[in-house]
Design a protein that fits this description.
single chain, alpha/beta, Aspartate Aminotransferase, domain 2, Aspartate Aminotransferase, domain 1, 3 domains, 7-stranded mixed β-sheet, 5-stranded mixed β-sheet, 17 strands, 16% strand, globular, disordered N terminus, Cystathionine beta-lyase, chloroplastic, lyase, PyrdxlP-dep_Trfase_major, Cys/Met-Metab_PyrdxlP-dep_enz, pyridoxal phosphate binding
């Protein structure tokens, strides 16, 4: 349309106003454009539509545009003779923050603004020979179903399953592998995962091979006809080693194996490994999903009905499903996940840059730094570097002093909380790994891990600076 055209859309938009209002739109949301035979409208901002009165199909909906039109001479020819037309409005994919605020809980018949807590162990049945939609909370609960449905949407999964912890979720995945079959797993994993892989799973007759997952040749050499599962983290915890999820998935699938990515350190806000070819994504929901250090939970987001059915069977058979109250706590915390992750990441970037410039710090491990060797690969498969980082001082005495001197960083395991946390992994989260194995993998005792919270970043930097300056020489 020419810039000088002055088409009046009032009659047209007034005829659409009722339908638009029902789905959260108004004429102010629409930007008109013209084709050969119809007038089209684009959205100024993404909008989620939940059925209502307009016909939905995928990410498009159609509006009946029958109305009298007032046009000037320069534009009348464009739409002349069009009495009834269907305008097609393209909807952008809603962001995670929008999904979190507009999640439709189909498991609540009363449309409560907040998901109700179904704090019950069992459900009454319609008769002695009929079963209702729920019977026993171990097998299913409306509160858990609501959380699982939301998490599946966030990770673009076919199904999601909530467990009593991240380790319970990982144990369920391990049970997909039978006696004599193989798991190829990264050699730089969370300490609890390492304990499961080295001390528990081998007792079931499963062969576990440990590899550097950032080395594609090493992975290719390890994967064989008996490999059923490839297990990795990217970035790794705590050394921030980056692996090529796409290529690893291609190699695994070529041998009939599935890929598990522990995405706890990233959260669905920053990374969605299912889109990169992974088959299962695990989150320790204790971390960024719940976000407040007040609940323990794990999540598996899954592609494919067959895999989903197997994992549901294990969740039910082993009784490892997350309790209703814990699900409700996660649902409450997850609403602010996008805001928290953004603030935490902004803080972490500034802290990483400060540490990298400090004379008493010998190395900083954070994918957001320009000199990180895996930075380009990481940003090709994630939206940001997150808020967990680690650094070395070259001195255990200095590192111990820093951890014990800071006043705004709590000495604790875990990460992803709104509160900043600090630890020496070799003595805490990774203490179960034998010291010789840790050293061989480059996990030295002076390494400090930080989980950055939402505090004022200047206060956090000043706190670290004081601890560094006052430490032993």
């Amino acid at each position: 349309m020419a810039a000088s055209s002055s088409l009046s859309f009032r009659p047209l938009l007034s005829s659409l106003a009722t339908d638009l209002k029902d789905v959260g739109l108004s004429p102010a949301n629409l930007v008109p454009s013209f084709g050969d035979s119809l007038v089209s409208f684009g959205l100024k901002r993404a909008t989620t539509l939940r059925g209502k009165r307009l016909l939905l199909s995928g990410n498009k909906f159609k509006v009946n545009c029958s109305a009298d039109r007032e046009m000037d001479v320069s534009t009348s020819a464009v739409v002349d003779g069009v009495a009834d037309c269907l305008n097609e409005i393209e909807l952008k994919e809603p962001s995670i923050s929008t999904i979190l605020m507009n999640f439709e809980n189909k498991f609540d018949p009363y449309n409560a603004m907040n998901t109700p807590l179904y704090q019950t162990a069992t459900f009454k049945q319609p008769s002695a020979t009929e079963n209702g939609p729920y019977d026993y909370t171990r097998s299913g609960n409306p509160t858990r179903d609501a959380l699982e449905s939301l998490l599946a949407e966030l990770d673009k999964a076919d199904r999601a399953f909530c467990f009593t912890s991240g380790m319970a979720a990982l144990a369920a995945v391990a049970h997909l592998v039978g006696t004599g079959e193989e798991i190829v797993a990264g050699d730089d994993l969370y300490g609890g995962s390492d304990r499961l892989l080295s001390q528990v799973i081998p007792k079931t007759g499963v062969v576990v091979k440990r590899v550097n997952t950032s080395d594609l040749d090493e992975i290719a050499s390890a994967i064989g006809p008996w490999t059923k599962l490839v297990w990795l983290e990217s970035p790794t915890n705590p050394r921030q080693i980056i692996s090529d999820i796409r290529k690893i998935a291609e190699m695994a699938h070529a041998h009939g194996a599935i890929v598990l990515v522990d995405n706890s350190i990233m959260s669905p806000v920053l990374s969605q490994p299912l889109d990169l070819g992974a088959d299962i994504v695990m989150h320790s929901a204790t971390k960024f999903i719940a976000g407040h250090s007040d609940v323990m939970a794990g999540v598996l987001a899954v592609k494919g009905d067959s895999l989903a059915k197997q994992l549901y069977f294990l969740q039910n058979a082993e009784g490892s499903g997350l309790a209703p109250f814990d699900c409700w706590i996660c649902l409450r915390g997850i609403k602010t996940m996008a805001l928290r992750v953004e603030k935490q990441q902004d803080n972490a970037q500034k802290i990483a840059e400060f540490l990298a410039s400090h004379p008493r710090v010998t190395q900083v491990n954070y994918a957001g730094l320009a000199d990180h060797p895996g930075r380009a690969l990481h940003y090709s498969q994630a939206k940001g570097a997150g808020s967990v980082l680690s650094f070395l001082t070259g001195s255990l005495a200095l590192s111990k002093h820093i951890v014990e001197t800071t006043k705004y960083f709590s000495i604790t395991v875990s990460f992803g909380s709104v509160k900043s946390l600090i630890s020496l992994p070799c003595f805490m989260s990774h203490a179960s790994i034998p010291s010789a194995v840790r050293e061989a993998r480059g996990l030295s005792e002076d390494l400090i891990r930080i989980s950055v919270g939402i505090e004022d970043v200047n206060d956090l930097i000043a706190d670290l600076d004081y601890a560094l300056k006052t430490g032993p020489l």
